[in-house]
Amino acid sequence: MSEETRTIDGREVTTPERKERNFIEIEIDKDLASGRYSHVQTRFPPEPNGYLHIGHAKSILLNYGLAQEYHGKFNMRFDDTNPTKEKIEFVESIKADVEWLGADFEDRLFFASDYFDTMYECAVKLIKKGKAFVCDLSAEEIRQYRGDFTTPGKESPYRNRSIEENLRLFEEMKEGKYPDGAKVLRAKIDMASPNINMRDPVIYRIAHESHHNTGDKWCIYPMYDFAHPIEDAVEHITHSICTLEFEDHRPLYDWVVNECEFEEPPRQIEFAKLYLTNVVTGKRYIKKLVEDGIVDGWDDPRLVSIAALRRRGYTPESIKMFVDLCGVAKANSSVDYAQLEYCIREDLKLKKARMMAILHPLKLIIDNYPEGQVEYLPMPNNLENPDLGERQIPFGRELWIEQEDFMEVPPKKYFRLFPGNEVRLMGAYFVKCVSVDKDEAGNVTAVHCTYDPETKNGSGFTGRKVKGTIHWVNASTAITAECRLYENIVDEEKGKLDENGNLNLNPNSLTVLKECYLEPNFSDAKAFDSYQFVRNGFFCVDYKDSTPEHLVFNRIVSLKSSFKLPKA
Ligand code: ATP
Ligand code: MG
């Protein structure tokens, strides 16, 4: 990686140069070089009306990453200008999510509603400049007058009110003289503009509603397209990064910051939203899944809210890796969920101990092993990362193994246990299957083996070879735990939505295994701890339902992947 030095704010700073700069970085480079801006400041501006999801994570990490890259600042701002929809409960969850992702906004936590005075002053300024007017048309009439893509709009009969009259009426709107909908304040731009957003857009409306921050101080509230550029300008944001659907609103954004005469006005840059295949991000759908009891809340591990990903066991590092892999694009596209799984596997594989856990237990009895004896065997915590050290695991006469590691009548190329066959018990001894116990229905209830004491792991034995190695847990010292396995919440084959717009749900999205057996080294596992379960995937302790007496694990991801990193 080569480095690059440039001057920002009079200081020489060196930033590592990546292989390819994305189009936003290219724009910022130009702005710094031309002197349009002398610093970089970005923001994440969520509406506090729901939980954040993986798409928001992209926006957070993009904005925070750019601020870091250019030695600038990153603001956290709640866009709480709409009194009807916002709920204060979301403020805390959003803050927690942003902090968890590592996007440090330091002391720059802002609320757009704190700028209501400034917004009002800006509106008055526009009226005084003859750039805004109070309009008495109804919402429906405004829509009709607006025209469409082929027909130009028609001017409002109130468009030419005098500045004095507009000032008086706007003041009266603020004082509560008029009911909701009776009047609006509109920007006076151009009813013939090919861009419909520029056809005298509404910038203030009357709403006799309490606001969570400002209470009953206001009964007029600014519209998003007017409020947002002012919020950015007040905070000295330079690059206001938003998603593609706002591209057509950019001329209005520029109009507002220019007409309100802000110094070093911010500029808006749009990028494509992140979409994931086979997951549900829409608030409407998630709300229904919660209400119907299909998921156990906004943080159900099958969802991709940030809270759900955290609960499932995803790490901030894995999400950052994922977002970086996706890149920043100008065109919408969908990313395969498998790519997210690839990132968490990559992140955890060297960091986490590989522990023994049996998900579908079958009893194995070693007939020639002394009854009541328990010996401790050393086991490396992670073969690929010796720094993680080793641990001791108990071994005894009765063990648990996976049901799928035994077959009475094996198919070809089955190298695990079957009558007469010998396998290695991972880190322990060779065992040979000698007989089975069955219940009345003929199901195998236990497998009997004999072990060869000469084959103890690491004892220097060089004799016979076996083709299969299976994992195991000593029964007398095992911890019983619950494990939850997940699949996509939507049915991959049928597609996300049916013809009525309802979700096609996958009936197997959750499998609960109530009796799994774990080696005793799990005894101090606590909420959010994660491990690799040998051969079974990565698992994380569920923070909601797990207790020291009854451990509950979520499978984060299995070990096998269908996703391959494209060759660079
Ligand atoms: P949703 O409707 O999915 O909750 P939103 O756009 O209404 O999303 P906001 O709270 O308004 O959510 O958005 C906060 C920021 O997150 C905005 O800057 C928005 O552009 C960005 N954002 C939202 N969804 C995505 C996405 N899927 N990919 C990237 N950025 C996104
Ligand atoms: Mg929104």
Structure overview:
With 568 residues, the chain is α/β, with parallel strands linked by helices. The protein has three domains: 22-271, Rossmann fold, CATH 3.40.50.620; 283-352 and 481-557, Beta Barrel (Ribosomal Protein L25, Chain P); 359-471, Beta Barrel (Ribosomal Protein L25, Chain P). 24% of the residues lie in helices and 26% in strands. A seven-stranded mixed beta sheet has the order 14-27-28-29-25-26-15. Strands 23-20-21-22-16-19-24 form a seven-stranded mixed beta sheet, with no helix packed on it. A four-stranded antiparallel beta sheet has the order 6-7-8-9. Helix 11 crosses helix 12 (337-348). The protein is elongated, with a radius of gyration of 31 Å. The mean pLDDT is 93. Residues 45-47, 50, 55-56, 58-59, 242-243, 273-274, 281, 283 line the site of adenosine-5'-triphosphate.
Major beta sheet, specifics? 7 strands, mixed
Number of helices: 12
> What is the 3D form?
elongated
Low-confidence stretches: none
CATH class of the largest domain: Alpha Beta
Give the termini distance in whole angstroms: 14 Å
- Over all CA atoms, what is the radius of gyration? 31 Å
- Largest sheet strand order: 14-27-28-29-25-26-15
CATH architecture of the largest domain: 3-Layer(aba) Sandwich
